[in-house]
Each structure stands twice: as C-alpha cells, then as structure tokens.
Amino acid sequence: MDRDLFDRMCSFTSALQDDICAAIADLDGSEFVEMPWERAEGGGGCSRILQGGQVIEKGGVNVSTVHGPVPPGLAGELPGEGAEFRATGISLVLHPRNPKAPTVHANFRRIERGKTGWYGGGADLTPHYLYEDDARHFHGVWRAVCARHALADYPAWKSWCDDYFYIGHRGEHRGVGGIFFDHLAGDPLAAADFVEDAAGAFLESYVPILARRRHEPWDEGHREWQLVRRGRYVEFNLVYDRGTVFGLKTGGNIEAILMSLPDPVRWVAGHTPEAGSWEERTLAVLVEPREWV
Predict the structure, then answer these.
(1) What is the pLDDT of residue 8?
(2) Which residues of 220-239 are buried (b: 16+ CB within 10 A; e: fewer)?
(3) Residue 86's CB: how many other CB atoms inside 10 A?
(4) Any idea where the domains of the chain sit in the sequence?
C-alpha cells in the first residue's frame, strides 16, 4: 500500500508541475527553465525556474523524490522507526513583479520512514498591499477543498498556518495565511485523495488574483515597500522555514531550495510605514491575523 501511495504521489506531482508551469507561462508570456538535479545519497528532482518575466519577477516550481539514510540532524523529527527515509513532493513560490500582486507559496509532500508514512503541506498568500477580496478568494478556495474531505479541518489548519508563518523576531506574520497541515495519516487513501484535491486547487486559488492585479498601477514608493517586505520573506525562509532546513539537511539541490528567495530585495534600517497609509493598514493585518471566510 505504501509503495502504491508513494508512486502515486510521484506521478501526481510530476503532472501537476506541468499544469502549473503551463498556466503561469501562458499568463506571463515567458517559459520556465528546467534544471534537473541528482542527490548523491539517493534520488533527485527537477526545478523549473522563471526569472525576469513580464508578470513573475522570480518564481520556481520544484518536484523531488529523495531517499536514503535518515540524516542525524533529522532523526528525532521524522516519525517512525528505521534508518532509511524517502520523500516526494512539489513546492512552489511565485514573486510577481507588480507590488500590488501578492507572492504565493504552496507545497504538498509525502514522507515515509520505515512502515510509517504521512502527508504534509499547504498554501499561503503574502500580499504587500492587502486587497481584502483577494484574501477572501484565496481562503474560500481552501475552505471549500477542506469541506469536501472528512479528515480535513479548515479552521484548525488556517490557525496552524497563521502560527507557522510567523516571524517571531519581527512580531509579524509573513502574510494572510491559508492552510498548513503535517503528519496527516489516518486513512491513507482518504489522505491521498485530499492532498491531490488540495494541490490541484492551487491554480484556482491564485491565478484569478494574479490576473486581476498584474496591471494595477504602481510607482517607486510601492516598489520600495515591496522590496522591504520581500526582506521579511527572506528572513522567515532562512530562519524558521522547516522545508528549507529539511532540504539543506537532506542534501537537496541548493538552487531548488533557495529558489524561494526573491530578487531583488532590500533591507532598510528603521523602515516604518507612514501613519494611516495602505502600507500601515496591511502591516496591521500581518500583526493581528483575521478570519477571511
């Protein structure tokens, strides 16, 4: 059963990578560059990167399937018993060029150790300028997906997402969240069905937002705020993100792991938004998460 589920996840994520890249490339008018890679300890993957596009300034959609000895630094973090593990999944980050269009992240994975297997993942939205209807649309899609599956729990996973994507040293959340779940096991077939439904809903959750924000007018002040907020994104990914740590500790491809980092980006000492500004209103929501649906 586990072998069937693992192979099923591998096939599904490979096809989904094709679908997502095709949809984003069509919207952008640019092509992703494919970068296959191999892992010395076992397995490998394929990164598809888009840089300098008309709509997406930097983005990547990665799939990987890795296996081998459990790294010493992860032995206490992976459920199950045994000296070997394997993992497969898809991970993506898209940083639009327009400051009014939000950054998005999603990943869905299956990990196994010995006889123990589970799923994890989710998706979250990071606006630099908050449009409330965008947040409502994004959360509405994930709530609807969860409602179709008895094992899913949108309220709990929304809260988990808010808690996870928190930049503790800044006292801010990275964005307006979405859903986040991990160690999802129980009925393995039901879990597999949910993960495929959720991952397949990514384009529905994000492309309509990107399509309507890509042409919003912006100026250099908007760009400055976008680059500063991108700095917060970098801080979270390098300090707190478990996926980044997992990839580095398991010998993953550096370019694939760090494709999530935006380019360009700025750190401005003492940068604070003007009182009463759109920037300040957005930041207020990042400090105190809201319910969107």
Answers:
(1) 97
(2) eebbebbbbbbebbebbbee
(3) 18
(4) 2-287
Q: Is the distance from CB of 95 to CB of 124 less than 8 angstroms? A: no
| Residue of 37, 2, 18 whose CA lies nearest to 90 | 18
Tell me the DSSP string of 143-160. Answer: HHHHHT-TT--HHHHHHH
- Judge contact between 94 and 51, C-beta under 8 A: no
Residue 129 is inside which H or E element, if any? Answer: none
Q: Is it true that the peptide bond before 264 is cis, omega within 30 degrees of 0?
A: yes
Q: Which CATH architecture has domain 2-287?
A: 3-Layer(aba) Sandwich (3.40)
Q: Are 205 and 140 in contact (CB under 8 A)?
A: no
What per-residue confidence (pLDDT) applies to 255?
Answer: 83
- What stretch of H or E contains 220? helix 220-239
Active-site choice (67, 95, 105, 137) = 105
φ and ψ of 135, to 5 deg: -65, -40
Query: So what's the pLDDT on residue 71?
Result: 83
pLDDT in tens, 248-288: 887 778 888 888 999 999 999 989 999 999 999 999 999 99
Residues in the chain with pLDDT values less than 50: 1
Phi first, then psi: what are they for 178, rounded to 5°? 170, -115
Q: What is the pLDDT of residue 1?
A: 46
Claim: this prediction has a pTM higher than 0.85: yes
Catalytic residue list contains 105: yes
